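Researcher: I'm preparing a figure for a lab meeting and need a structural model of a single chain. I don't have an experimental structure, so a prediction will have to do for now. The sequence is pasted below. Please return the structure as tokens so I can convert it later.
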Amino acid sequence: MTAAVVTGVGAAIPPRVVTNDDLAGYLDTSDEWIRSRTGIASRRWVDPGMSTGDLAVAAGELALRSAGIDRVDAVVVATTTPDRLCPATAPEVATRLGMTGVSAHDVNAVCTGFLYGLASAVGLIAAGNAQTVLMIGAEAFSTILDPQDRSTAVIFADGAGAVVLRAGSPDEPGAVGPIVLGSDGSLSDLIQIPAGGSRQRSAGTLAPPEDHFFQMRGREVYRHAVERMAASAQEAMVKAGLSMADVDKFVPHQANNRISVAVGERLGLVPAQTVSNVDHMGNTAAASIGVLLAEASVDGELHAGERLLLTAFGGGLTWGATTLVWPALTAHMTVLPRPVSAVAV
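Model: Understood. Here is the structure written out token by token.
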């Protein structure tokens, strides 16, 4: 059976660092309040003029370099913040990477986007429609945040993480294991942007300004996130024929530190097994797992031969999990330069 094998990893983050003290300057919050509830001390936000596509292209270039190739058969971009509502961002990203003509499409599963995008890439390879796929999770989430909503503004951030996959054998290092995905649309209002879509537009009513921003009912999301991430992780391990004793590193979506700790405890994992960068990256939604994989690899926190357990939860509601043995590769990560427009300001 053909498997999808990770052969390259790259990540790109914006240059602008936003600290908790920066946010406390205009929000009713403090560094202590944010740290105690989220584990976040700082995050990266795009400067004016920088888009999700810019981040995706930079991460994609680095993942291709990591894999030692300059072209793939398909490009998948997982994002909640496309450059435009129409068309998808992936075709333009592919063209900017010098790959006009290849298959390219977007996936939107909010914070589960990386795993949904990974499943899409795996499916293309398994079906024989592609031998190589570039999958990018990318977000400019700060562009959809209400700057006065401390429940979301302190958590979410921007960045892009990418992986290159090729057709290979299931027993190779880097082979993606069974991917467990799920959803529950009856709870779609827990994480949403109410305005801007066909439902609101066809109603013919003017939406209040706050409805054009991202909204989240945090307390309810926390409970569902812990339950769904833990359950899908356990299911993915069973489908892979593994037990929790086989896990070397736990790589959860960086929702916030409390969720990662709670999921790890439910799975019986010790804190030292959990890989995290939420303290200085925040929650980069669909990009978070990709950025985390790249940064942990660059920093030497991930080692070839280690078995990883990945899990995520996002709007939809959506959730998912998978496993893989980390391959021997050289990951790359970069901080983008400030756009000329931002420098001028």
